[in-house]
Amino acid sequence: MDSTLAKGLAAIEWMTRQQRDCRVTDLAQAFGMARSNAHRTLQTLVDCGWAVQDPATSAYRPSLRLFELGALVSEATDMGSLLRPHLAALAQQTGETIHLAVLDGAEIVYLDKFDSPLPVAAYSRVGGRAAAYCVASGKALLAAAAPDLSALHERLGTLTAHTKNSITSFDALLSELERTRVRGYAENREEWRLGVCGLGVPVFNARGEAVAAVGMSVPSIRFARTQARGLADRLLACARDASVTLGYRASPVPASAPLPASTTRRRRLE
């Protein structure tokens, strides 16, 4: 166990439970540590954004970052249970691997999945990660955020090739995200793993924010253009229903109509 990390985490929890501003001496007494060690621990928490110090009293309190992360964890947990029936229905309709993913920095994280029962199937795992710019779920969420070149650079850093088909140019990625916005869904054509293709569509909450993506992983042998379009239509319908479940306002539309192109527009589904 990393004792320094454990001490910092314990200090965060202790401060949060006090429900008041705390001084260096308070922490030192609570943990039986030297005042200098308590001061160093609290300053590290401030430097890392987990605590704030009142300039007038020099007392410390937890930052709102704890609330932000707690809300995200709660939302992700609730969201997963709410959307699972939609994923299950899509998996049954298509016979392909279906997953729910969220964006975490430069990567996506799989929250839930349904495996394909077919002999040849694409593989992913709950809790697994993938480069957002290489997979359809990630591209769907990047497109929904309407990023510009500087925002993409800041979020993604260097675009590393994972296969010969990976996008490694920011200009090319911007063009791909614009195509995604126009048609309503993203594609991955063996950009993360050779032999594996995919489709992704963002899911929006009641505030019009893209909070997740419904994705479909398909072996390349079952991903001809005509097949991909048919699968995309089903995925769009699933994502639309999932968005409605999360409170997004929808109007009667054809099953193949795309979801909103950008969270900044916050318009109705059309």
Write the layout of secondary structure elements.
Elements lengths: L2 H16 L5 H8 L3 H13 L3 E3 L6 E3 L2 H30 L2 E8 L2 E8 L14 E3 L4 H9 L4 H8 L13 H14 L2 E4 L6 E9 L5 E10 L5 H21 L25
Antiparallel strand pairs: 1-2, 3-4, 3-8, 4-5, 6-7, 7-8
Structure report:
The protein has 270 residues and is of the alpha+beta class. Helices cover 44% and strands 18% of the residues. The strands form 2 sheets. Strands 5-4-3-8-7-6 form a 6-stranded antiparallel sheet, with helices on both faces. A two-stranded antiparallel ribbon has the order 1-2. Strand 6 (186-189) and strand 7 form a beta hairpin. Helix 1 (3-18) packs across helix 3. The longest helix is centred in the N-terminal third of the chain and has 30 residues, at 65-94. The chain is elongated, with a radius of gyration of 22 Å.
Largest sheet: 6 strands, antiparallel
Shape: elongated
- The helix-and-strand class reads alpha+beta
Question: How many separate helices?
Answer: 8
The ordered H/E elements are HHHEEHEEEHHHEEEH
Q: Give the strand order of the largest sheet, numbering strands 1, 2, ... along the chain.
A: 5-4-3-8-7-6
Compute the number of strand runs: 8
Please state roughly what percent of the residues sit in beta strands, choosing from under 5%, 5-15%, 15-25%, 25-35%, 35-45% or over 45%.
15-25%
Mean pLDDT: 84
Oligomeric form: single chain
Rg, Å, rounded: 22 Å
Approximately how much helix is present in the residues?
40-55%
Regions with little confidence, pLDDT below 50 for 5+ residues = 251-259, 261-270
Distance between the termini: 53 Å
